[in-house]
Structures are given as C-alpha cells and as structure tokens.
Amino acid sequence: MKAVLALFLALAPFVLADVPTGCVTLWHRRFGNYLASSTQYDPKHRHVTDRESPERWKIFRSDYNYRIMHVDHNEYLFASDWMTYSGNNNYVYTWIPRTNEESDKWQIERVDGNYYSIRNVKHGSCLFVGSIRWIYAKKATMCTNELFHWNIERC
C-alpha cells in the first residue's frame, strides 16, 4: 500500500502538468461551442451556458485539483447542490461572491487527444452542455463519453 501511495505522489505532478493552466478557453467537442457566463440567476449566482464566441477562463491548481474562474467576472465555476428534475445533473453556476469550497474544485484529465474531462470534486459529476444550452454536471462513473469532452486552449 505504501508503494502505491509513493508511486501516486511521484506521478501526480506529471498528470497535473498535462492540464493547460492560466488563461484558457473551453470548447465543447460535441456541440462545438465555448463555455460562457450568462445572466445573473440571483445575487450570489450567475448562469453558465455555451456560445459560439470564446470567453476567457483561468484554470489554476488547488492541491491535486483545479479551480476554474471566469476572467472578466472574477467568479469561480461550481456545481451546485441543486439538482435538475431528473435528479442526475447538478446545476452549474459561477459564484458572484468569491469562495473557496469543495463545489468549485474540479478534476481535469486528458481523455482523448486534445480533449479533457472536467469532473466536480464534491459531486463526482462531469461538466457537459445540457438542454436549452445550460451547462450542467452529470452524475457518471466515468467522464470518457464525448458528451463530457472539452478542448482547453491557452488564451
């Protein structure tokens, strides 16, 4: 067990180094649009959607995970505790007051060539474009389906 832990700790920096950090754009593989902020939902939350034109986000490390911040609004992307009617998807927003919680931490892994999956740490759900172009985080055992693939490019 100690050998496995030592191997993981030795390899973790290399896995993390594979993810583009700093200013980035996030483009959805299946729908061909970019991750974007949208209208304000309430005083603490802003909707997240997809658009044809790119918006700038900042990805940075948070321990062995990542945080994703909208550059222009200075707001963190998070998967809320609120679920869709199906009960399988978490609504995704940006925090208007900046916070540091588990719901705004993400695991980002390369899944296919230049594509990455983005999984919420707190909920274990995968970022995707849902109905009416809103962004959700879907409960899934693995985020390998094209539905969860994002191209992350530096600004």
From TrEMBL:
<keyword id="KW-0732">Signal</keyword>
<dbReference type="Pfam" id="PF14200">
    <property type="entry name" value="RicinB_lectin_2"/>
</dbReference>
<feature type="domain" description="Ricin B lectin">
    <location>
        <begin position="56"/>
        <end position="129"/>
    </location>
</feature>
<dbReference type="InterPro" id="IPR035992">
    <property type="entry name" value="Ricin_B-like_lectins"/>
</dbReference>
<feature type="signal peptide">
    <location>
        <begin position="1"/>
        <end position="17"/>
    </location>
</feature>
<protein>
    <submittedName>
        <fullName>Putative 16.8 kDa salivary protein</fullName>
    </submittedName>
</protein>
<dbReference type="InterPro" id="IPR000772">
    <property type="entry name" value="Ricin_B_lectin"/>
</dbReference>
